[in-house]
């Protein structure tokens, strides 16, 4: 590849690279079932398209219902909800990289994975909670 191509497409290359690194990292470490707290309730509500505890998170329920419709049975519904949480987290890192790169004149890969792999982000994304969709 020539240097002009890399300079012209550095933002796209770095942003998509961050996306795939974060997606692979999360999908390789995803929980196959639900964890504690509200996760079982949210997965069941998404699987049956019911209202979870107030406020109910209607946007999240509709989006997750699409993911749970891909599950052959209820056993895989939790896995698909957890995978979608990783997908939304990877998109959050992608858009963070797209935001940071134009602000700095040189591409840097580290801020987006650092934010997405931080402990507070990790607590939001590991359970199948709706917080990752809010960040996305």
Secondary-structure element pattern, one letter each: HHHHHHHH
Total number of beta strands: 0
Distance between the termini: 32 Å
Biggest β-sheet, characterized? none
Summing up helix and strand content along with how strands pair, one would put the structural category as mainly alpha
In round numbers, the mean pLDDT is 75
* Percentage of β-strand residues: under 5%
* SS element count, helices: 8
Characterize this entry briefly.
Helices cover 70% and strands 0% of the residues. It contains eight helices and no strands.
Give a structural overview:
Helices cover 70% and strands 0% of the residues. It has 136 residues and is mainly α. Helix 2 packs antiparallel against helix 5, helix 3 crosses helix 5 and helix 4 crosses helix 5.
Could you list some keywords that capture this structure?
136 residues, mainly alpha
Write the layout of secondary structure elements.
Elements: H1 3-8, H2 10-28, H3 39-48, H4 58-69, H5 74-103, H6 111-116, H7 119-125, H8 131-135
